[in-house]
Design brief:
Blueprint lengths: L10 H15 L5 H16 L6 H16 L3 E5 L1 H6 L1 H11 L2 E4 L6 H13 L5 E2 L5 E2 L5 H4 E2 L9 E5 L3 H9 L3 E5 L6 H5 L2 E3 L3 H14 L5 H10 L2 H14 L4
Parallel strand pairs: 1-2, 1-6, 2-3, 6-7, 7-8
Antiparallel strand pairs: 4-5
Helix pairs in contact: 1-2, 3-10, 3-11, 3-12, 5-10
The structure holds ligand PTJ.
Ligand PTJ binds next to helix 2 and helix 4.
């Protein structure tokens, strides 16, 4: 990998790009994942490559909602595994959630490679390999989930998700927390808590809020969730994109 100087104005973005490339080389990320990353980068550029205030509020609400869950599951795809494997393990630990590999382009090889990669980053239990339940209304491969994982969950964090599956999960009655840089995407629009931020910033931020809120009462957590206004957050992100100061 080419050395990226720290003072390069887009150093973080270039490092993220390299992590996705490495993910493809390791058989973790799909080639389509490269295209998805490019799309994400474009929105991130327009957002100023920073966590905007409405995303910060969404991240706090997400932490509170995950802490309130009976059974929270964090869904991991090939892009998430390449970009934030250790950070996802830390978030799962902080909120007591399960990790489940759930792929758009599912192959047994990629499922196993991602589960191994998460274990290398400290995960003890990785779900998704049993695939003994289905999400209704989706074609066979994309619908595969674990009975004691996503199928059973009341709250699911679905980062970088395709719109069909996000809609199908929401129709199953799950509370969805979506991380997606595009505030106009269908997945962001169906989410109870849309986080319009780069996954590399969003996941550590949610973990930080969760650690800070770990001794908060149920009432305090419920107040944080109910005060979060998803429509306002989506509008604020769209406005930031349309009016952003680009350099
Ligand atoms: O690993 P698989 O097989 O499950 O496939 C994963 C991808 C991402 C390829 C698949 O889910 C897909 O094709 O997704 P889409 O429909 O391209 O949607 C990805 C969304 O994530 C887009 O709206 C992007 O803007 C957004 N996105 C991309 N990179 C990031 C991101 N959002 C946050 N952080 C990113 N780094």
């Amino acid at each position: 990998m080419t050395e990226i100087p720290d003072d390069h104005p887009r150093a973080e973005s270039l490092r993220t790009r390299h992590r996705i490339e490495a993910g493809v080389e390791k058989g973790i990320t799909s080639k389509q994942g490269l295209i998805a990353q490019g799309r994400g980068e474009a929105y991130d550029y327009l957002l100023g490559e920073e966590t905007i205030p409405s995303a910060e509020r969404a991240e706090r609400a997400a932490a509170a909602r995950l802490l309130l869950a009976d059974h929270a599951v964090l869904s991991v795809n090939g892009n998430v595994a390449a970009l934030v494997p250790g950070e996802m393990v830390e978030l799962a630990d902080a909120v007591g959630a399960d990790l489940e590999v759930n792929l758009f382009n599912r192959t047994e090889e990629r499922m196993a490679a991602i589960a191994d990669h998460l274990r290398d980053h400290g995960a003890t239990d990785v779900k998704g390999l049993a695939a003994d339940a289905r999400i209704p209304g989706l074609d066979h491969e994309r619908a595969k989930v674990d009975e004691d994982g996503i199928h059973d969950a009341d709250v699911v964090l679905v980062p970088l998700e395709d719109g069909d599956r996000a809609e199908a999960l929401s129709e199953m009655g799950k509370t969805e927390i979506v991380v997606d840089l595009n505030p106009m995407s269908r997945s962001a629009r169906v989410a109870a808590i849309p986080i319009i931020d780069n996954i590399v910033r969003a996941v550590p931020n949610v973990t930080e809020h969760a650690r800070e809120l770990k001794d908060a009462s149920r009432e305090e957590l419920e107040a944080i969730v109910s005060e979060f206004d998803r429509e306002a957050a989506l509008e604020e992100a769209e406005r930031a994109i349309r009016q952003g100061d680009l350099d």
